[in-house]
Amino acid sequence: MEKSKSISFTFAFFFFFFFSASGPSVLMTLGQLLPVVEDQGGNVSRIQTYIIHVRRPVETKLLSDVDRENWHKSFLPNTTLDTGKPRLLYSYRKVISGFAARLTHDEVMAMASIDGFLHAHRDERLPLLTTYTPSFLGLSERDGIWYTNCFGKGAIIGVLDTGIAPTHPSFDDKGMPSPPREWRGHCDFRQPLCNNKLVGAAAFRGGRPMPVEIDDNGHGTHVASVAAGSFVDGAAVLGNANGTSAGMAPKAHLAIYKVCSKDGCDDSDILAGIDQAIHDEVDVLSISIGSRPRSSITDSQPRPFYEDSVAIGSYAATRHRILACVAAGNDGPYEGKVVGDAPWILTVGASSTERRIRATVRLGNGTELDGESAYQPSSFNSTLLSIAFPGYDDQGGRRGCGNDSFGGIDVKGKIVLCETGYNVGNIEKGEFVKEAGGAAMIILNQREQGFTTFAEAHVLPAAHVSFSDALVIESYFNSSTNSTPMATIIFKGTQFGSRPSPAVASFSSRGPSQNNGGILKPDIIGPGVNILAAWPPNVEPTSQVSSSTSTFNFLSGTSVATPHLSGIAALLKNTHPHWSPAEIKSAIMTTADWLDRDRKPITDDYNGSDANLFAMGAGQVNASTANDPGLVYELHSHHYIRYLCGLGYTEQQIMVITQHHIKCSNNHDISVERFNYPSISVSLGSPARRTIRRRLKNVGEDDAVYFAEIEEPAGVKVEVSPYRLEFDRLYERRHFYVILTTNGTTPGKGQVSEGQLSWVSSKHVVRSPISVVFS
Ligand SMILES: *[C@@H]1O[C@H](CO)[C@@H](O)[C@H](O)[C@H]1NC(C)=O
Ligand SMILES: *[C@@H]1O[C@H](CO)[C@@H](O)[C@H](O)[C@H]1NC(C)=O
Ligand SMILES: *[C@@H]1O[C@H](CO)[C@@H](O)[C@H](O)[C@H]1NC(C)=O
Ligand SMILES: *[C@@H]1O[C@H](CO)[C@@H](O)[C@H](O)[C@H]1NC(C)=O
Ligand SMILES: *[C@@H]1O[C@H](CO)[C@@H](O)[C@H](O)[C@H]1NC(C)=O
Ligand SMILES: *[C@@H]1O[C@H](CO)[C@@H](O)[C@H](O)[C@H]1NC(C)=O
Ligand SMILES: *[C@@H]1O[C@H](CO)[C@@H](O)[C@H](O)[C@H]1NC(C)=O
Ligand SMILES: *[C@@H]1O[C@H](CO)[C@@H](O)[C@H](O)[C@H]1NC(C)=O
Ligand SMILES: *[C@@H]1O[C@H](CO)[C@@H](O)[C@H](O)[C@H]1NC(C)=O
Ligand SMILES: *[C@@H]1O[C@H](CO)[C@@H](O)[C@H](O)[C@H]1NC(C)=O
């Protein structure tokens, strides 16, 4: 990993775009129509890429690709720049009604007066923040239950990412059927590298589709194999972690859309990738790319859906019956940071597993503290070493183990304490420690990282410990005033059965959404800490891994949780080919586990308390129960349109998303609380009474009777009417009301209270979390 790519959050292990204050243009809507684009440098003549949304003419369906492209070009001042480069980068077919083009601010301003113009926003390129850890080969710690019934045969998962290493054994197609006959994708590798597993590959970068280069980052390869990697047996690295690796839907097909490079992913390329995936007819989209949390209008406002390419693209996908699974972000544990939060998206947070790659710290006084590391050299004999703590009170040097940390301190032959953060990645800290002559390293979590630790590819003996263990080490260090503080590391390899499990990862972005009018997000959590999956053999770190092509790696992040859900959605698509994206979502959410392996409430690895709904949504995905939910909540385009009207968007702004003319005025009920979502989230005054309407569809047995079971949020009385729902046949629908009442003795303004509603039959539990914010 290049030093220049040092990351600001060592735990932010995925492509995630952080708002950069330097240089975004500001775009506002003047009145109803004209965009005003201000360039920060006042430079209105700079040529940049803009995404332009235009009103789709009624007869568009009849237009050929060439006609559509010509129509899009008619909005441009001319077709080429002075340099001879074409202005038009993409003429989108399905994902939006519009195009991406190279223009100046003035030219966009001029275009706004052309009939049919709707909205323009500047293409964004933000740094790609990612890192990796080495892995052990061949181990799969995934539950067999996730794929024993159904391997996702026939389903196609579209992965938008950095591409793929196509010859990795995880993408071997032994035993794979050919893709469905309707499959329209193609394979743009330079060589014929596609097979029945890898049925499509396309790359988009700043314009036309181009040949797909082999994944030179690793992220895309990893994510794709988590979703649908083939079984890879009996391989091991350094004698550790021997087992079978497989994706969530090992018999599903993969279609790869390379829309990101090492430098990041552009909105215009993301839209082009989704456009192609819709055209190709994938079943599920896996998007481990964060949409930026900030608006281009003001840096404190969240980015509205009509400027968020992931939200816009996912809406178009949903309209084509493709479920989009999108990462919630790695900005935890702070509240209100969740992204990918549009209601048509399945928003995925991350949880830990019960596996640890143990590296235990032993202090000079005998106390042992369990940490993690993927690099476990047998040559390290665990003799006690004296501790150096750069930057700590009077110790000399600086904190964080960066390149300038060891100036005033001797770390030679010592075990060095390094705090997470300070813009230095964990592996990088080790490189600096080693360079300065340190013998070993202990990475101390700060408060925000809580109990979440990583097994990483360190370059020297190391252990990453939790914040609470960091405090013990610190206090031992403090108390050793008359003796030299000593410590060492004992490597214990791969261990299972860690508790509590699962727990919400400290980095997983939390709600409430700042953007979506109060819908509870994230929707679901899935495994996303130290996940083992395929890795390109030519990408670092390879030294500790293997010389074989069958290389694996650990990654952490909501980006890795996301393909778990994409794979599970593919499994459901196999058994329930007619379910809509909303129905698949509902099935996954209403059957999620809110208790952990010990039947206790799922905890939050930030501080060990019970996780709240803003951290875990409906809870931990449970593939086997999701396959047979009993009842589902449906949502259709007219619900989404009403919802968007309810957000207060103008009709033009909504058309950017829907591509079709809509009218808000005739919609009577636009309150988000009556939106048929599988979770319930309301804002309640005190005293107050609020009635929520929901409708369920029977997808279980012909005859079924369900009773409501309520766990009331503290301070709220909840009644359900009717409390009994009887279904006489499959696909029958029944609606019900939930009446929430507060009486003036409720918690204070801004307090949040949580409960749940379950519809229980002899065979099924259909559970919705209830979140009440007191206003
Ligand atoms: C504005 O942008 C143009 C084109 O990129 C460049 O030639 C010019 O120097 C810039 N002017 C300023 C003041 O930055
Ligand atoms: C295209 O238009 C721009 C101004 O909008 C002008 O500077 C440029 O010379 C034109 N290019 C051609 C090839 O006509
Ligand atoms: C991995 O496990 C398989 C089956 O248990 C065994 O045959 C193989 O020798 C093991 N490989 C290594 C490197 O330990
Ligand atoms: C452990 O390793 C260190 C450094 O490699 C060496 O100095 C020491 O003698 C070893 N101790 C034992 C007990 O082998
Ligand atoms: C330390 O790293 C910073 C940022 O990467 C760099 O600007 C600086 O030159 C480095 N200093 C040394 C002494 O290498
Ligand atoms: C260690 O001592 C420093 C002051 O020297 C203090 O700030 C810090 O809180 C102490 N840490 C612990 C864990 O006791
Ligand atoms: C070692 O020191 C730490 C920190 O002061 C303390 O919490 C722990 O109990 C001590 N262990 C023993 C065995 O005394
Ligand atoms: C843990 O964090 C949650 C969420 O921030 C908070 O509600 C809870 O009170 C915290 N628990 C403790 C013990 O501090
Ligand atoms: C999924 O749910 C079933 C039924 O409640 C339960 O027995 C099982 O343990 C759950 N699976 C996981 C992986 O938690
Ligand atoms: C108000 O509601 C709370 C909680 O639902 C309940 O305990 C209390 O008795 C109620 N008070 C009145 C005056 O109804």
TrEMBL record:
A single GO BP: proteolysis
A Gene Ontology term for the protein's cellular component: extracellular region
Family classification: Belongs to the peptidase S8 family.
Main location per the UniProt record: secreted
Peptidase S8/S53 domain span: 152-619
Protein name per Swiss-Prot or TrEMBL: Subtilisin-like protease SBT1.2
Domain called Inhibitor I9: residue spans: 49-126
Subcellular location: Secreted
Organism (species): Cocos nucifera
Domain PA span(s) in chain numbering: 398-471
